C-alpha cells in the first residue's frame, strides 16, 4: 500500500501547486461558460463538462501542466526529512556546495568593494530613459568592462569537484588500480554501457534517427518523411508527454521550436508576456553588479562565436531579465545550491535586512550566456525565448554548476565520463594519464556548457533534443566519451596536455548522433 | 562582337561574374597548363600551384589567364584587343559589364521582361495590379539622369518613400546613399537637360535609383545580404552551378527604418568593405554567417516549406538574371577572415575542377556536363540542355492530349512551375 500513499502524496502536491494558478482560473471560467451550451445537460453535468473540456483541448493543457510539475517535483522523501535533504541527501556534498558558494560570494563582494561598484543601484531618470531607447541594441553600448573579471571559470569549479571526498567511504578498501585513475574520487552510482543501452534503446542501430537517417544521401522516404509526418501530428495534438517521447529520435528543424515549447510547457500566455515586461521594467529601473558580469561574458563568448554573434542583443535581453526573476528561486528547493544572501549596508547578520542577491539567486560565471545562445536559433520573440530558457535552466542547466549527487549533476557526469573511458579505452586513458593530460581536464568545459559553443549549432540542437527527450543530461557524458573514442588514434600519439587539447580543439565538424550510436551500440563489451 | 562560342565558362556572383572564353581556332598543346595572373591573391596562386600548373608571363604562350578588370578591357577592347586561340581560357566574358554595371543590368532585365511579354510567354504574366507574378524581383528602378522625370512622377506618388542611389560603375558599396527628399538629388535634375548620350558615356555621373525596401528580413535585429557563387560553364545552352557554401553578411549596427539613421551607412549597407570600418566589426567571424546557418535559422523559426520556397525563388532569380544578361566583373578574392580564406580557396578549387576536368589543357570543343563526384561543393542550378530534352518528352506527351497546365512553354524561357519546387 506504500505505492498508493506515494501516488496520493504526489497528486496532493501537484494539486496544491496548480491550485490558484492561471490555468486553474482559466479552467474554471471555461467550465462556467460552457454551461450555456446545448450539449450540457443538468442530469449529466459532470460528465458533459468534462467532455467539453476534453474536446476543446483544455484537458490536454491541464495534462501538460501536470506533466510539467512531475519534472520539477521534489523527490519523495521521509515525511520528517528536513528541507535540505530534498535539495541534496548527502551531507558531504551539501557541505562542499556551501563552501563553494561562500567562496563565490566572497569573490563577488570583494569585486564590488574594490571597484566601488555597488551590488545594486537605482538608475537615475536620465539613464533609465537612455536604456529604454537602447533596449534593442545594448550590444552597441561599450561600457568599460576591463575592470570586471568573471567571478569564476569552469576550471576553478573543476578543482573543487576533484577535491570531493566521501568521509564515510574508505577508498582503500576498493583499491583496484583503475578506480584511482580518474580525477573524480566519489562513489556515485552511474550506469555502464549495458544499462545505457537499455535506457537509450531508441538510439540503437536499428532505429531511424534524425542526425543520421536524414542525411542527404539517404532517401527521405526511408525514414525522414514519415518521421516528420508523425512529428506534425504530435504538434497538432499539443501533448507534452508525446513530444518528449518523440524528441528522443530527434526533432525536425521545422518542428523543433514547437516541440521544445511543448515539452517545457512554455505556452507564452499573456501573463508570461506581462511577467517578462515586468522584468524588463526592473532592468530599466535598477542596475546590478551582475549585469556587468553578463555584459562581459557575452562580449567574451557569444560575440566571438561564428554562429551566435548575431544574437548578442537578445542575450542581454534574456540574461538581464533572468537575474531579476524571483520566480527562479523556486528551483532552489531541489537544487543543492542556495541563493546567496546579502545584507543591507551595515546590517550584516541581521536577517531582517537580508536580501537575496542577485534576485534570482544565480551568479553567472564565464560561459553562462552560452546556455541561451543556441535557443536564439529557435525563438525570435523575446518573451518566448525567455520563458523557454528559464525552463531549460531550472530543469537541466543548473545541475551543471552545482555540487550534488544527482545522476544528471555535473559530478555524476564527470564520473560517468571517466568510467566509460576507463572501461572501453583503458589504453588511451592510461596513456593520457601518464602524460598528465587527464581526459576530464579537457572534457569538463564541454560538459559544463552541454557542448554549447563547441559543436556546430545543428548538431548541438540534435544533442539537446535527446537531453529533453530523456529528461537527463547523461547523454552529454556519453558524447564526451564518444568524442575521445573517435579521436583515440590521434590521441595515442600525443605527448603532452597541450597537444591533446589541440587534437580536441575543434569539434565543429563532428556529427553527434553517429558518434553516440557507435559508442553505445557498436562498442564491444 | 562575335557571338559567344560553344564552350564558355562563366563564373558569377550575384551581381558580378567572370567568364572564360575559348576561341574555336588552333590546336591543343600537350603538357601542363600554363597560367598567368595579374592578381596577386594566394587563393588563386595556391590552387594553380597545387595542380602543378606552370606559371608563365603574359607575353609567353599561356593557356589560362586570370585577369584583372583593366586587363580584360584591353583584351576585348575594339582598339587594343586580340583574338584568343583554341586552347586559351580567360576569366571574364567580353561584355562583362552588362551585369556589373547597374544601369545595364536594369536595362537588360526590363528588356528581357518585354521580350517575354511580346512572345506571350506565361512567365511574363502579370497580376490584377499589373505586377509581374514570376519576374518581380527588382524593385522599381530608374536610371539617372536619363529617367529623372519618370522618377519624379513615381516619387510624387509616394512622397514619404525612401530611395537608394547607387553609382553605376562602382562596387563594394562605394558612393551609395539614401534619399527621402527630391532636393537631395537636385544635381541630377540639372543634368537631365543635357543629352543622355553625354551622361552615359562619361560613366561617372550615371546612377540608378531604386525604391528602398524598408522592411527587410532581420535576424537578431540586423540586416544582412547574401553572397552566392554561381558558375556557368556554357551560356548556350545555359548550364550553371551554384556553390553550396555561400554566405550572409550582417550589418554590425541594429537596423532601424528611422529617417535619422539614413546617413548612417553602417546600418543600411552590408558590404564588408564598409562594415570593416565600423566600430563593432569583428575580425573573428567578420560579421558573416554561412548560408547553412541561415537555412537552419529560417527552418527553425519559419518552417521548412517556407524556407525551401525562399531558396527556390533565389535560385530562380539567379537563372532569370543570367538569361537576361551576359555577365561580368571580378569577385572579391580578398579574404577578410581565416574562414573566408578557406572558403575562397575551396571555391576556386572546385571551380577549376569543373572547368578543367583532370587538369587538362582547355579545349573549346569540350562541353560535357561534369559527373556528380567532380562537382565538389557545387550543385546543378540549371541545365538547359537537360531541360530541353525533358521538355521534348513532355511535349510529346502533351501533344497526345494532356493540357499544358501551369508549366507553359519552355524553350529559352526556362521552366517555372507555379507552386512546387521547380527542380
From TrEMBL, chain A:
Annotated Rab-GAP TBC domain residues: 250-471
Q: Which Pfam families match?
A: RabGAP-TBC
Q: Extract the SMART domains matched here.
A: TBC (SM00164)
Q: Which domain of life is it from?
A: Eukaryota
Output this protein's name: TBC1 domain family, member 19
From TrEMBL, chain B:
Q: Where in the cell is it found?
A: Cytoplasm, Cytoskeleton, Cilium basal body
Q: Where is the composition biased (Low complexity)?
A: 399-412
InterPro entries to which the protein is assigned, alphabetical? TTL/TTLL_fam
Q: Which GO terms describe its molecular function?
A: ATP binding; tubulin binding; tubulin-glutamic acid ligase activity
Q: Which domain of life is it from?
A: Eukaryota
Using the record, list the residue span of the signal peptide; answer none if the entry has no such feature. 1-19
- The answer on whether this UniProt entry bears the keyword Amino-acid biosynthesis reads no
Q: Where are the transmembrane segments?
A: none
Provide the alphabetized UniProt keywords.
ATP-binding, Cell projection, Cilium, Cytoplasm, Cytoskeleton, Ligase, Microtubule, Nucleotide-binding, Signal
For region Disordered, the annotated ranges are 383-423
Name assigned to this protein? Tubulin tyrosine ligase-like family, member 1
Q: What is the originating organism of this protein? A: Oryzias melastigma (Marine medaka)
